[in-house]
Amino acid sequence: MIDLYTENTPNGYKISICLEELNLPYNVKVVDVRQGEQFKEEFLALNPNAKIPVIVDHDTGLTVFESCAILLYLADKTGKLIPSSAKARWEAIEWLFFQAASIGPMFGQRAHFALFAPEKIPYAIDRYTKESERLYSVLDGRLKEREYICDEYSIVDIAHFGWIHTVKRMGFSFEQFPNLTAWYSRLASRPAVAKGITIPAPLPM
Ligand SMILES: N[C@@H](CCC(=O)N[C@@H](CS)C(=O)NCC(=O)O)C(=O)O
Questions:
Q1: Rounded mean pLDDT, 66-73
Q2: Which is the closest atom of ligand 1 to the Cα of 31?
Q3: Which residue in 12, 38, 194, 195 has the most C-beta neighbors within 10 A?
Q4: CA of 11 to the centre of ligand 1 (A)
Q5: 125 and 186 assigned to the same domain
Q6: What is the CATH number of the domain that holds 27?
Q7: Is 110 within the bounds of a domain?
Q8: Spatial separation of the C-alpha atoms in residues 122 and 188, rounded to whole Å
Q9: What is the residue with the minimal CA distance to atom 6 of ligand 1?
């Protein structure tokens, strides 16, 4: 059985979606990151970086933090949602790192400066908005004439969906990118995705 330490956030949703897709049994342990529970000693023992998500897999005794590492762990555990040939696997890992290193941090900074920062700093808002839109266009280009980011539906789509869903709900539109918009609808219509974005709760309004 897997324990999933999570919250209703883009990185948390990646893992609930993946566990739902894989039909793996799991216990949800909510970490209220808005109230600072990630800084408690017992949570820091699981992830010294004080961020959700984290899984503890009691079948293997392993604890894994960093959402894309968890996705890779779950894909390898089950042999599903990641291609098996070396070429296709490395292509998937490449796009997984693209999500972790570019989409997540840039979208996160855009949301912070545009919506949450107490002081509105035009330079910061403009910088992260432009970079996020450039990243939309990278994804839109990749999705031209393909249904999924890799050849088949995989953890790479799940990794991106957590963030694309969240920024859409925050009001950052991407309708001007038709391939990305079609991909978003394709994923949103999957039952496991629809369920995953309600665990532990839908996004706060
Ligand atoms: N690179 C990390 C980012 C994790 C992350 O930023 N988690 C957020 C929620 S989406 C969090 O725990 N924030 C609490 C904090 O920053 O104190 C991952 O992909 O797992």
A1: 98
A2: 12
A3: 12
A4: 7
A5: yes
A6: 3.40.30.10
A7: yes
A8: 33
A9: 51
